[in-house]
Every structure is written in C-alpha cells, then in structure tokens.
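#data-curation
PF: Archiving a pair of folding outputs for the training set. Convention for this channel: one message per protein, sequence first, structure tokens after, nothing in between. First:
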Amino acid sequence: MNQRNRIIIRTNMAGILMNLLLSVGSVDIEVDDSLTAADTTRLSRRIRRIGAENGVRLISVGIYGTNAADPRHAEMWDRILAAVSARPDISRAYAFSCSEEKREVSFLVVADPASGEDAVDALKSDLKKDYPDYVFEIDSIMDY
C-alpha cells in the first residue's frame, strides 16, 4: 500500500491554485499482550511523534496484542506463520490470540486483493488439518 499520497487542492477563489503535499499513512504494530493500556498509549504517541519528526502524519496507529508467551501458543503461532509464508497471496500475519478454553484462534492477515477471501478460506482449510478442534477467526486486510 502506498503510504504517501499527493493531494492537490484546487480552488477557484481569486484564481489561486494551491498544491499541498502531505505524507500520510497508518501503521499497525504487534506487541506482547502483557502491555497495559497506559503502555500502549505511550507507545502510540511516541510512534506518532517519530512519524511527525520525519514528515509523516500518521492517521492511525493500530496496536495489536499477541499472546504467544505460552509455549503451546508459541508453537501454534510458528506453525501458522509457516502456513502463511507458504501462501503467495498472503504477505503476513499478526495479532495472534488463542483461547484454549474456547478452542478459538484469531489473527489478522494481509492478503492480495486479487485473491480476496479465497486466500483466507484456503488458509483456514490448511490450518484445520493441523488443528481440527479449533475455530479460526481470520480477519483480512487487503494489500492494495
């Protein structure tokens, strides 16, 4: 996704033509789920400040927790990441969460828009072979 966009503002007032170049974007980061809300707020503000210092106006900072501290979850996440890396239509995965009690796994993927939800469905099918007792909630963000 192109994070720099040229915005041209044209106005007819007094024949003024203004060109305005803005560097805008958003960023998603993954953190350990042990961080507190205060920690993530400080982190978000720091990221926005660093962006501003470098001429980038961040319109959003998405912060996603990952609960892979448990060795079983870490192993599952590693296997999921291996399955993702084997797929040419999904570029990355993040925001892993696993509930052993509910037998649910959720995470986000960045997918090729040409494949759309078909890529996510195929990934779910692959993962169900290794983890038939789990329900997979996979949200996708399209990589335009």
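PF: Second:
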Amino acid sequence: MITEATWAEIRALHQTGTPIKRIAQDLGVAPNTVRRALRSATPPRYERVPVASVVRPFIPDIADLLQERAAMSVPTIAEIIGWPYSLSLLRRYVARLRAASVPPPASAVVPTPQREIQRPGYEVLCGIWKGPELSVGFGQRLTLPVLVMVFPFSGAVQAVMVPSHDFAHLWLGQWTLLSELGRMPRIFVWERNALTVSNWGALESYASRLQLRGQSFMSEPRLSALQAARRDLGAEFLAGRAFESPDDFNSQLSAWVSSGERAEVRPMLDTELQGMLGPDEFLRGLTRKLLSGERVASLLDRPTVAAVRTVPSPEGIVSCGGNGYLVGSWGHGRRVKVETTLDRIVISSGGYQREGFHQVEYQRVWARDVTAEKPVRHVRIVGHRHEELEGP
C-alpha cells in the first residue's frame, strides 16, 4: 500500500499532464497502483477487518463456573469447557474476571442465537466420529476422523472422512457436503471436542466469513443427535463392510446415506433444504459495509484454506496436509498456487512463465510424512496449445 505522500504526488503529477506509465516509472510503483490512486478521492488507509476473540464463545461457561466455585483452577475450567487453545490465554482472562469479582458484562458476551429447531433449515449440528482403521497407502494403516453433520428438523445425516482433525480439513469436508446440497443453514453448532485440535488461522477465517454473511457458529459440550448418528454409523453402516482406502470409504458412505437405508427422511430433508439459504440470499444479511474492493465469498465458494500460494522447497517439494508433492524445475524458486479437495491436490504456476503455464494434479495422499512423486496429470499450456507431460 502506498503512503499518503505518494498518493498526493501521483495526483499532482497527473494534474500536470504526466502520463500514467511515466508516473509509475518515476515513483517505482505499478501502473494499476497509479490508476487506483487517481480514482480514490481520499488517501489510502489500512483498515484491519475485525475478528472476534476466540475466548468469546466460552465466556458464558467460564462465568458460570466461577460463580459456582471462584477458586476453581484454570486447567479444571479448561477441561470442563473443552478449551482448545493455549492455557496462558485462558489464565489471563480468568485472572481479569477474578480481579473484577463480577461476571463479565453483558456487552462482552457473544449473543447466542436462539436454536429454533422447529424451523426447517435453521441450523446444522457438526461433530466427529472415529472411523475404522484402514489402509492409506505407503504401507500405513490409520484411524481417520469422519465429519458428521445432522440436520435436526429432518434427522438427516451427512458424513465424510477427512485427512485429520485440523480445522482446515474439517472446513473443507463441510464445504464438500454442503456443495452437494447446494444450500446452507444459518447456524453451525459444533461439538467442542471437534475444535480441540484446530488450526487457529482456519478457525478465525471460518468465523469471520460466517459473521460477515450474518451466519454464526457456536459450540456445545455434547449433542445427543450426533451421538445417535454415530451409533447408527457404527451399527448400520460398518456392518459387514470392508474398505480399501479413504476414497472407497467415502464412496460407500455417500451411497449409504443417499440409499433406501435413509429414504425415510428424504421428504423432510427436502422441506429443510427449502428453509436454508440459497447461494446469494446471504447478501441481504451482511453485518457491515464492505471495504473498497472487498468481495464477499458466496455460500458455496471454496474455503480460504482450499487455495493458497507457496514456494516449493529447494528440492522442489510442496508441503500440503503434512505431506510433500514434487514439482519439476518449472516450479523451483517460484511461487505456485496449491488448490486442495478431499481427493485431489492441484499445483499450478503462480503466474506467467516464458516456457508456459504448468498444472500438476496429484491424488491426495492420506498417509503421513511421505512425498508423492507421480502425478495423475501434468499439463503445460503455451498460448492455445495444451500439452500432456510425463512426471511432475
């Protein structure tokens, strides 16, 4: 971002008739930066998007515990409320509450949405089920988590296996399931144990995106509907089944959910879908005015964690999800774009290159601490010509 002095100098030079490209060259900025400065009536100003504190959802529970027993230790409080973050952060907040000797003010407590379960499509319950041990390739066998979502009105269950408990993977799994439905509820209620091993950046991005669109998420210690869903998955879905891989597990699970075994809830699920938000309905509920140039992610846009830019290691390895994916010399020392789904890792050139635009597609590796070297596909695009290449 340019300084106020540079902004003023750009406008002064333009008023004297200096061409935009000459201004950019003299000041060492991009021509588009000059154009934006000329379009803006005020100097550029950095405005940080407000992000809710991770402590806020737990404030009511902390206050209740301190009212019952003011001397309760912080580790005990953390265990009871399912605290997923650093104990030092919790200690600072508990110390402030004890020093004040009063419950937190009402303004400090995040308003908890009324859980109107009778309204179809109003909310979805989210949690984790411990899936069966299965082969993940590279000679490894792992027990992976399964994201489970229950729609309270209809009792419908959606589920998908994800690579780890990292919240980035949970968010990606949730997006995968909701994209299949094409609609989204207003409130996401998570079991707290699903948030105990989290990616802070992903969790904050998730909360900010929901907050901006007028949606929200909350957490509760235990949800009986999820416990019932886990029992059904263990007793009905797993009975007599064998799985060759996580992809095979997800394929069989998707077929079971949509088959006649769950057909009794389909009419009510259709009613529930009608009560959910459509892809653009959230625009009427924005909670603040958008900043200049800011775009609101659609309900069905990919999570921010699904597309990142990074630089490969000196050996040409791109780290993603705890594993490495090899790229050729075209990506060495250059920023590349990494797009992820639950079954694919796509690595692309970060910008224009003289030898062409490269895109390498790998099947996701579900094992741990390994490097994939054989992509499913490698395409080089030069002009209008697409060329299939061997290797990364």
